[in-house]
Amino acid sequence: MRHNILMKIKSVKQVDEISLTDAECGDVVITFECETPLKESDTCAMMGRYFNDVYFEETDGDSFSRKGDVFVMTGVIRVPLSDKTQSLSESEITIPISSRLTRQLISQEYDAERKESVKEMVDNWIGGLFDKQGNLIIKK
Length: 140
What we know:
The chain has one domain (about 5-20, about 25-125). Helix content is about 25%, strand content about 35%. It contains four helices and six strands, in the order E-E-H-E-E-E-H-E-H-H. Strand 4 (about 65) and strand 5 form a beta hairpin. Helix 1 packs across helix 4 (about 120-125). The mean pLDDT is about 85.
């Protein structure tokens, strides 16, 4: 079973925006298909972690379906222009998933059909935000 997300990039289009400063400004629109061991919400969260900011555009080509022991997701995303996205081309990239989700996959505890609480989603996506007493961890 996969322990990452394999994104096959079908097309990449840079969308430039007018900027009053010298800083480059714009987005990259990516048409993709990916194989993922995760359910749709977890997959979207891991893509957001990888690209830092993701807007999922609604298209007729959007899909999420099971294929053997993985899911296949197709769609179009818009991400900010960055060093990471500037060099993208029609290729494959591997998107890592959080260590907590990886542990669940390895131990076969991950259940794509199970409903999770918001706390479980936060823990899975970005790690624990609360200490053992339930207090928010704030680092100064």
